[in-house]
């Protein structure tokens, strides 16, 4: 039981980060139809900028804010200089552009920072808590709490603010949104910015536990994308559930079956789910119109 | 025996009934029109007959064989073909190639001979292409066979769909608004094409909004409204049916039809 | 008209053959032969990927896995099972085809992004086996691959492999061009543009997706075997998911649905990193930037976009 709890905690911690990445995918996808494979680089930027700013003497909270700001700027730049000019190109073309952006950002990070692994001190120092025989690091709780806070904030932002509502309208029907006077270019830009911020926050929270380097984004994008698809593309709730499920599958797979095959177990489950539910857990089936 | 027979078809989307209790029979060489206002369920009925949608209720028979749950491509083997209201053109392929796909079931389909371009494959390709050219000429599209379909005007694409559907040599042909968006001259040509097709013994099921065309060439007309059958009969009968006049044709259209 | 189409079709294969024949005259050293050989090998895999992605319109982010199966077949077969190398190569291709056949049935029912993630998962699962079944594969360090020996003649070195891979690529392009202009190829392309219309015309959509998937897996496996034989070794990195992404990038950059595009895309991502080493640390920055710019300005891929620009000027 203690072991089960232990795996569950570690699974939820990683899963929360996957969920944030998946949420980032979903936001951009809904607003623009683009699958942004540079999503993992936002997480990397969150961690790396915080690490280097802190090392330069910036107080940690400020360093974290700076990291979020940098990620947001990069997200906006990605949209303005790479996605918007290619408007109207096919979906694969846009995906390859984001892959190019991901390579570019990794390259830049390896120059501006370095290629080594870095850690941050835990934000809440102290002993691990004992819960039901399992030990849980305060930082893990912070990751989970932080992710939950991001989700709630995002929800409030989406349902209460004009920009958020415009984002929802744009996601539902871009043409109609444009007709009622919403500047959809601006809204897509905002979705890149919000997405980047979410990714960066995930990166900041998790760095004390998992370390970071210039290259961590690739795998995170892969897991986040898979999680988003598992949940059902375009569905924010699906993205969150998908992320947590992938995290839990990895942790339990590693614990009970084989740590070497932990990724395999997650993907095996994703495959099996898709065979039964071809539109993911929360995707709507619908009959294709002809 | 009728070639195509639809029995008590019902379907719903997300709880909303789109068709209910629709039955009809079409025989060889017959031009059978289905009319009704937008959203009446005409296209949905075509989608069910051609196997793209599975109905909740009822069945579809081809020459007496229950084909309701057959995969789409099997229906083509049994002699059914159709065109689409919202064009489903292979727009990256040339016009000729579009029609050549229609010959699929008449071609040998072993992959290895195709890979190695054996003489048999080359010969077959030439035959298929000749047949495609012939069909393009039949629908009045001579001389555009090498153009990419995506670059052709709307009117040409409508005919291209007809040529493509004919390529499979169907016994039952469903045409979904073949004259939509066509001018008077083009409509007259399509009128002629449809009559020629039926004269060869093909059962033609026609969905069309151009009442002049429908009244002129249809042997029987089936009127749908909100997913239900309103009336069925000859042009004369339907035109005089008070329910049809009231519910569908309206005053103006009723007068127009009476003069047609 | 038809003559022109025929000419164009043979033109592609002929042009490629001439390129393979002439290139050695200008390649100054073994180093360049190596790059050309790698280009041909990757082009072979991308050509296969193009059948399923560019022609049949079904995305695969898992072809690195099939590539790996070919590569490990010529490593594991001879080392652990005593299968001669020349037999292990087609056996690997067969195995990849068989796996594609089995897994393709359920996977190809998925569409778009769901298909992408399913194939991605498949590729990763295959790669994990190579990493973890160390008693057969040597684990993360990989294993060495015996030389290909045919009639007492041992295939080694860049020049030899230049010819093997170059001739194979021309052959593969010939096969692909034949297929594209056959009922099978027309079925592929029809499915890409409209599945409902294909089905209504009698095309068994599931079957043709599967055929495209299996063929492309075989192409990738042969390419993987060549790379392993040429390098004399194989590691799990041969099959990792970045490899799959690289193949897709090559296919899209060169041009989906273009045989020449497959070669150009493979050349782009094989040659460019070599050239970019002059930028030292900035290598990846420039590579990423170039990918973005090329896709931005040549949206349909290098070859189709340029071809359109050139042909538009003609009446
Ligand atoms: N795939 C589908 N999903 C949901 N609703 C559909 C679908 N296809 C048709 N409908 C609905 O069924 C009704 C009939 O539509 P349709 O058959 O296209 O009408 P018609 O062709 O007579 O104009 C409409 O209300 C339409 O919205
Ligand atoms: Mg309709």
- Are there runs of chain A of 5+ residues with pLDDT below 50, and where? none
Mean pLDDT of chain A: 91
Order of helices and strands of chain A: HHHHEEHHHHHHH
- The oligomeric state is heterotrimer
Q: Tell me how many strands of chain A there are.
A: 2
Distance between the ends of chain A: 53 Å
- DSSP helix count of chain A? 11
The CATH superfamily of the largest domain in chain B bears the name P-loop containing nucleotide triphosphate hydrolases
- What is the CATH level 1 assignment of the largest domain in chain B? Alpha Beta
**What is the CA-CA span between the terminal residues of chain B?**
32 Å
**Global shape of chain A:** globular
Overall tally of structural domains of chain A: 1
SSE layout and pairing:
The complex is a heterotrimer of chains A (290), B (260) and C (315).
Chain A: H1 2-32, H2 39-55, H3 60-83, H4 91-112, E1 129-131, E2 134-136, H5 138-160, H6 162-172, H7 174-179, H8 184-210, H9 217-231, H10 236-257, H11 262-276
Antiparallel strand pairs in A: 1-2
Chain B: E1 4-13, E2 16-26, E3 31-35, H1 42-49, E4 57-62, E5 65-66, H2 72-77, E6 80-82, H3 95-102, H4 111-115, H5 119-138, H6 154-167, E7 172-176, H7 184-199, E8 203-207, H8 211-217, E9 220-225, E10 228-233, H9 235-240, H10 242-259
Parallel strand pairs in B: 3-8, 3-9, 6-7, 7-8
Antiparallel strand pairs in B: 1-2, 1-4, 4-5, 9-10
Helix pairs in contact in B: 3-5, 3-6, 5-6
Chain C: H1 2-26, H2 30-55, H3 63-81, H4 85-107, H5 112-132, H6 134-137, E1 143-144, E2 148-150, E3 153-155, H7 158-180, H8 183-193, H9 195-200, H10 205-231, E4 233-234, H11 241-254, H12 259-276, H13 283-297, H14 302-313
Antiparallel strand pairs in C: 1-4, 2-3
Helix pairs in contact in C: 1-7, 2-7, 2-8, 2-10, 2-11, 2-12, 3-4, 3-5, 3-10, 4-10, 7-10, 8-10, 11-12
The site of magnesium ion has 3 residues of chain B, from helix 1.
């Amino acid at each position: 039981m203690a072991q089960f709890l232990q795996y569950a905690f570690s699974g939820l911690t990683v899963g929360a980060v996957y969920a944030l990445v998946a949420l980032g995918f979903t936001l951009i996808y809904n607003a623009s139809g683009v699958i942004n494979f540079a999503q993992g680089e936002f997480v990397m930027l969150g961690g790396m900028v915080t690490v280097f700013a802190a090392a330069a003497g910036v107080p940690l909270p400020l360093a974290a804010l700076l990291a979020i700001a940098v990620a947001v700027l990069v997200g906006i730049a990605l949209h303005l200089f790479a996605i918007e000019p290619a408007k109207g190109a096919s979906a694969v073309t846009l995906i390859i552009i984001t892959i190019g952006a991901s390579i570019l950002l990794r390259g830049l990070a390896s120059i501006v920072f370095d290629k080594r692994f870095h850690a941050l001190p835990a934000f809440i120092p102290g002993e691990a808590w004992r819960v039901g025989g399992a030990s849980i690091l305060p930082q893990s709780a912070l990751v989970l709490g932080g992710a939950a806070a991001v989700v709630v904030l995002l929800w409030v932002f989406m349902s209460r603010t004009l920009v958020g509502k415009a984002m929802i309208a744009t996601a539902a029907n871009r043409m109609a949104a444009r007709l009622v006077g919403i500047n959809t270019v601006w809204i897509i830009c905002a979705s890149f910015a919000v997405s980047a911020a979410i990714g960066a926050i995930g990166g900041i929270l998790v760095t004390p536990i998992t370390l970071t380097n210039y290259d961590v984004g690739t795998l995170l994008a892969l897991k986040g994308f898979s999680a988003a698809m598992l949940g059902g593309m375009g569905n924010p709730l699906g993205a969150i559930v998908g992320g947590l499920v992938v995290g839990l599958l990895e942790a339990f797979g590693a614990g009970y079956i084989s740590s070497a095959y932990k990724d395999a177990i997650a993907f095996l489950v994703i495959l099996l789910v898709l065979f039964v539910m071809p539109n993911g857990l929360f995707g709507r089936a619908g009959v294709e119109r002809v | 025996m009728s070639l195509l027979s639809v029995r008590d078809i019902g379907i719903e989307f997300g709880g909303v009934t789109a068709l209910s209790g629709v039955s009809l029979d079409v025989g060889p060489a017959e031009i059978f029109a289905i009319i009704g206002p937008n959203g009446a369920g005409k296209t949905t009925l075509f989608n069910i007959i051609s196997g793209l949608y599975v109905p909740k209720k009822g069945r579809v028979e081809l020459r007496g064989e229950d084909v309701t749950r057959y995969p789409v491509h099997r229906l083509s083997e049994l002699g059914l073909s159709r065109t689409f209201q919202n064009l489903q053109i292979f727009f990256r392929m040339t016009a000729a190639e579009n029609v050549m796909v229609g010959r699929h079931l008449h071609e040998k389909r072993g992959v290895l001979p195709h890979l190695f371009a054996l003489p048999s494959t080359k010969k077959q390709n030439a035959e298929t292409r000749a047949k495609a050219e012939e069909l393009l000429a039949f629908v009045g599209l001579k001389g555009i066979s090498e153009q990419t379909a995506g670059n052709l005007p709307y009117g040409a694409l409508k005919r291209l769909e007809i040529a493509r559907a004919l390529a499979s040599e169907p016994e039952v042909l469903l045409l979904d608004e073949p004259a939509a968006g066509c001018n008077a001259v083009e409509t007259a040509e399509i009128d002629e094409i449809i009559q020629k097709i039926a004269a060869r013994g093909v059962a033609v099921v026609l969905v069309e909004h151009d009442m002049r065309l429908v009244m002129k060439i249809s042997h029987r007309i089936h009127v749908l409204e909100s997913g239900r059958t309103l009336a069925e009969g000859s042009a004369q009968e339907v035109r005089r049916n008070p329910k049809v006049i009231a519910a569908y044709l309206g005053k103006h259209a009723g007068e127009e039809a009476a003069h047609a | 008209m038809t003559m022109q189409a025929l000419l164009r079709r043979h033109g592609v294969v002929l042009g490629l053959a001439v390129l393979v024949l002439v290139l050695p005259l200008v390649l100054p050293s073994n180093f360049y032969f190596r790059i050309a050989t790698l280009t041909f090998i990757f082009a072979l895999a991308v050509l296969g990927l193009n059948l399923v992605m560019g022609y049949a319109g079904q995305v695969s982010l898992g072809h690195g896995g099939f590539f790996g199966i070919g590569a490990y077949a010529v490593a594991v077969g001879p080392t652990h099972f005593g299968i001669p190398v020349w037999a292990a190569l087609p056996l690997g291709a067969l195995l990849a085809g068989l796996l594609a056949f089995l897994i393709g049935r359920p996977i190809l029912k998925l569409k778009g992004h769901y298909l992408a993630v399913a194939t991605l998962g498949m590729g990763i699962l295959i790669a994990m086996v190579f990493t973890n079944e160390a008693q057969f594969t040597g684990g993360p360090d990989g294993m060495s691959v015996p030389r290909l020996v045919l009639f007492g003649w041992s295939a080694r070195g860049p020049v030899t492999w230049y010819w093997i891979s170059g001739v194979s690529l021309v052959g593969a392009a010939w096969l692909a061009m034949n297929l594209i202009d056959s009922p099978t190829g027309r079925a592929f392309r029809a499915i890409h543009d409209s599945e409902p219309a294909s089905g209504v015309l009698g095309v068994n959509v599931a079957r043709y997706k599967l055929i495209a998937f299996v063929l492309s897996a075989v192409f990738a496996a042969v390419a993987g075997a060549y790379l392993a034989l040429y390098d004399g070794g194989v590691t799990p990195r041969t099959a990792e998911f970045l490899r799959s992404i690289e193949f897709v990038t090559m296919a899209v950059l060169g041009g989906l649905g273009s045989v020449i595009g497959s070669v150009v895309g493979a050349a782009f991502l094989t040659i460019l990193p070599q050239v970019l080493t002059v930028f030292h640390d900035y290598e990846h920055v420039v590579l990423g930037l170039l990918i973005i710019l090329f896709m931005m300005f040549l949206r349909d891929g290098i070859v189709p976009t340029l071809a359109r620009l050139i042909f538009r000027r003609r009446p």
